[in-house]
Specification:
The chain has about 80 residues and is mainly beta. The protein is built from 1 helix and 8 strands; from the N terminus they run E-E-H-E-E-E-E-E-E. Keywords: Ligase, RNA-binding, tRNA-binding.
Length: about 80
């Protein structure tokens, strides 16, 4: 399966995000990581699971990297 079901802390609420990054990341690699979540999307069901956002990532030559921020930044900070 290519999907990971993640629980993310947006600072003001917890959300579930389903992301197609399973072939690049193990769940334990993302625990505690401060990732950038696109949170203003309409919730959708992916393979029967509710996804309430999207993890921002970039790829090049078959390598995918999840966008993350400095650990000093508070959960829920806005990207500008």
């Amino acid at each position: 399966d290519k999907l990971l079901k993640l629980q993310v802390d947006l600072g003001y609420e917890q959300r579930q995000v389903v992301s197609g990054i399973a072939q690049y990341y193990k769940p334990e690699e993302l625990v505690g990581k401060k990732v950038i979540v696109v949170a203003n999307l309409k919730p959708v069901k992916l393979r029967g699971e509710l996804s309430q956002g999207m993890i921002l990532a970039g790829s090049h030559d078959g390598i995918l990297s999840v966008a993350s921020v400095d650990s000093k930044l508070e959960n829920g900070a806005k990207v500008k």
